[in-house]
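Q: what does this look like with adenosine-5'-triphosphate bound?
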Amino acid sequence: MIMEARAVTKVFGATHALKGVDFAVEAGRVTALFGENGAGKSTLMKILAGIEQPTTGELELDGEPIAFGSPRAAADRGVVIIHQELSLFPNLSVADNLFMARERVRHGVMVDDRAQRDTAAALLQRLEEPIDPRTDVSELRLGQQQIVEIARALAQDARVLIMDEPTSALSAAEVEVLFRIIRELTADGVAIVYISHHLEEALEIADHVVVLRDGGLVAEAEAADVNLAWIVEHMVGRSQDELFPEDHAETGAELLRIRDLSVADPRNPGRLSVDGVSLTVRAGEIVGLYGLMGAGRTELLEALAGRLRVVSGEIDIDGDMIEGPVSARIARGLALVPEDRQRDGLVQSMSVGQNLSLSGLRRFIRGPLVSADKERTAVTTMMRDVTVKASGPDAPITSLSGGNQQKVVLGKALLTQPRVLLLDEPTRGIDVGAKADIFTLMTDLAGRGVAVLFATSELDEALHVPDRLLVMAKGKVVREVRRGTSSREEIMVASEGGER
Ligand SMILES: Nc1ncnc2c1ncn2[C@@H]1O[C@H](COP(=O)(O)OP(=O)(O)OP(=O)(O)O)[C@@H](O)[C@H]1O
Ligand SMILES: [Mg+2]
């Protein structure tokens, strides 16, 4: 036992985020922490890592009582956290980001740039991600940023390494690399706490599992003794089978048509990230885009939304060509929920309600009188529709758990009343129960005639949610299947760029 939290509570205003939790961290083992959005996982981890102070309760390190006044103090004693929300500085290089936290271990002597770059390169090599350490973080895709975040934690030689949703933007291959490193670390005696809404993945790497619900510890077991159903049951009291929607909407007339669309690769302008894609989505239809990292799904959606310039091709809604800036496209009924929701989706200094009404304002202003009441009603209704757990519309956005912030971004797009809704990985970082809610919401929207196009890297979602699934590989649509007519293997082979 390296570290222990005893009877820890945490109160934020009216919210009791933790209600007397005992939690132990064991050397050389992976403890997976499960719980719905807002269950208190990140709060407990922030307390272990010195970011938050417990309201009551004790922490022990190596059997001695301890109170960390800051994350720096925790890191000095070997307790390091990889954050759920990326905390890198986008305008600094990868190397600068990596060593911002590491200066301390060099006995007060600044490390020279060259040595830093070499160490950075070695770390990235270990993570099998050959990024030049001089690259600005802002130029990296989301998954690469997440890897830099992991590298930064590795640079700190932790004894207790807390990973809060480390893989939400990683590809399957990148997750494999991370798992190899986790096994190396535990073999060296490092204690790992692992949080993920990707339950299968977390169960695969875990030695011990702990489930939180509503700020309390509800179940604990050895990983070998439990299965997915056990975890889901303790998290939400709803079975995994009920995750995917039963009903599907009638599809109507063709609403979105894309003809021969090509988009340059934003990171490698000489190449195409989307290469001559044509597709249609009907009113009431849900179309999925499945593919591996780099297949071009995000670039396709961003180009449709007007965030990336197209090289060639045409986009029509209802037969009318769509072009121009993002706002013009929103006005024409096209909305995108982006992949990188932290950066693109939310204004951190505003409340939940303000964030929600940001993009919907157009609608409120159009009415005969701009009524604050009307706006507030729409906002609270939306909070309920997307099941945001918050004290109310006035809660600061930063007071919401990671998954609940994601739901706010979704709500924001819905308030523009889109006719064509584009969703990039809509369930990233969202708990199983809320995933089901989001699928139901998508189906409801389709039922009201909205055309939904969504990208996913989850095979189960790809197989069960969309009416039609398009598999992308290397910028092209390589396969199209209707729901229930294809196997996991077929889809996987196609996404590797296999047969057409
Ligand atoms: N700084 C804060 N101010 C007010 N409330 C907060 C603050 N941080 C967390 N909370 C509240 O504490 C509760 C637990 O949040 P926490 O972030 O620990 O959840 P979580 O289990 O990590 O969820 P997720 O899976 O969505 O990341 C939530 O109700 C959240 O709104
Ligand atoms: Mg969290």
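The chain has two domains: 3-237, 254-495. The pocket of adenosine-5'-triphosphate (ligand 1) is lined by residues 12, 15, 17, 35, 37-43, 84, 389-390, 399-404, 431 (CB under 6 Å).
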